[in-house]
Amino acid sequence: MNTAADWLGREYGPGDYVLYSRSYGSGSSQMLLAEVREVRDTTVIARVLKRSRSDYGPDTGLIDSRTGKSVYYSKIHEKDPAHYIHKVTGERVEDDKIFERDPDWNGPEWAAPYLRNHKDYERVPVTYWDYVVRGPSYTTFQIRDNITKVDKEYAEASISQESL
What we know:
The chain is mainly β. It has one helix spanning 152-160, and strands spanning 4-5, 11-12, 17-23, 29-39, 44-51, 60-64, 69-70, 78-80, 83-86, 92-94, 121-124, 127-128, 132-136, 138-141, 147-150.
C-alpha cells in the first residue's frame, strides 16, 4: 500500500480524507474534500465528497457495473444516443443534424437559414445500456503539494454542512 506525505509532513493513504486546493487559469479556485483511493508515484486518485463551489454538479459519474470503471460518456455504452423528435410528426433527427443549415443558400454560410425549426422538436436524452450506472466520481490530483490530510471527524462534519 503506497502512502505519501502532505505539505505538513503528515502521512496519508487509501481511506484517508484530504483537502485539495484546485486552481484554474481564470484565477478562480476550488476546495475539494476527498477520500483517497490510491497513491501513485506522482499522483493521487481520490473520490470527491464535497466541493467548495456547488456549480460543478454532482460528484457522480457513469460507471460500468461489470468492471467498476468509469465509462467517460463513451458512445459504445449508449443504447440509444441523444436525439430530437418532432412534436407533431414524430420525425427523429440525430443530435448533430438538428442545426443543419440550408445547403442551397447563396449568401454567406454563417447567415444560411436552418433546415428545421428546433422549437418544433423535443430533445430525447441518451439512454445507456443496463450495466451503466451512476456511481462515485474519482479524480486524479496531479499536484500533490496542494494536499492537506484531515481527520475523519472533520470530514464527516464538513459533508453535513452546506459549505466547505
